[in-house]
User: Fold this.
Amino acid sequence: MTALLLAAALAAAPVPQVGVALVIERPTQGPVVAVLGDITVSSEVVGDVVALGGDVELAAGAVVRGDVVALGGSAFGAGTATGRVVGLGSLGFGARGHETRPAGSVAWGMGLLRIGLWVIVGSLLVLLAPQAVRCAGEQVVRQLWQTPVIGVLGLLVWVVTVVFALGVTATPLGAGCLLLAVALLLLAKIVGVVGAAWVLGRAAVPALPAAWRGELPRTGLATLVLAALSTIPIFGSALWLVVNVLGVGAVVGALLHRLPLARPLPRLAAR
Amino acid sequence: MNETCLRARQGLETGAAEDREVRAHLAGCTSCRAHASLLEVLGSLAPGEASEETVTRIVTALPPAPWQRRRLATWLPLAAGLALAVIGLVLSGGIPAPSVMSSLPVAAGGVLGWIVSSVLDTLAAARGGTDAARAMVTTGGFSLLLWLAAAAVGGSWAVVALIGRSRSGRRS
Assistant:
């Protein structure tokens, strides 16, 4: 009876919309899902809270009776959750508050899962699309100091595109642009990070046993080392941020280097 | 080509061009003289140094060597990654928010379907526009289309000219 009354008192979860932030200010029936938008919870949610490509803020007094997941973002705040609080796949910046880290075995499990996924993705990428990884890696070697700058500029352009897309997100064109921009950034990040690992692996060749000197094992090993280092609390976050920016810069730089369309650009800029 | 020619050509190729016997043969054999001058030209062609960009392009296009795939060490990182992911999932008690996560593939399919339908709608609209233009032409509205095209071209030209004038004005 109490459960029925409670269910009747709960508001229905808002319908997920692309690029729209959700604010939960009254008791709500979960799951609450946001796509490319943040969720702020300041009340009770009975069910899971999931942000795909966004942060979850659990404000003081918020109670989530379920799991809190920020896929491509972070979960933070003073609120509580009865289930797991997980932030996965964040680019390394953009968290607006102190991140709520999962405790105990969940923290270990999430860390290992993250490292494992990166190693799997890195190995498969070298196996299936070696040219993309090598191009990104060669860009890092060719312009080691310029590549992070290219990365920062590329991310700036990306942010401007996303802000523009968010402005017209109500239209199918805006939502499509937003999804495309996120997919492209994700792809650039993955290829770029594996490209950075490729460079690291190549540099480590003299120190590796002969069996590990091949392109596939050395890149997989370097990806594992990078992903493992990134789990160290403060140093890891900084390292991951640098690797991500470097990776995005490597992909953008390699594309500009290879695309014939980009070649006249410096000449046009010089006019 | 006789035995003497063969010996002379071997001498030329092994660097014995200044040998008295070879020189004497060359003086009397047109064919071997032509061979000697060909060797001289080939010798003067020093191999060009490959540009770094070309080398990089060729090397990056190569697939992983087949022998790499046959070695156990090649697959160890992938196996380690799978093992870590499985251990991680077990430690964290499975996939978080399973109700939402399990519906993600369906949602991704929905988004893909929406994008495809948007593209198809655009194509349909373009085809409808083309049909309308054809219908206008057949019903004698060709002159209207011509006027519209002329207005579009003229308007674009005016915009470009205005921008050009404002640029030149700023420069001066």
Residues 111 and 231 of chain A are 7 Å apart (CA to CA). The first strand of chain A starts at residue 22 and ends at 24.
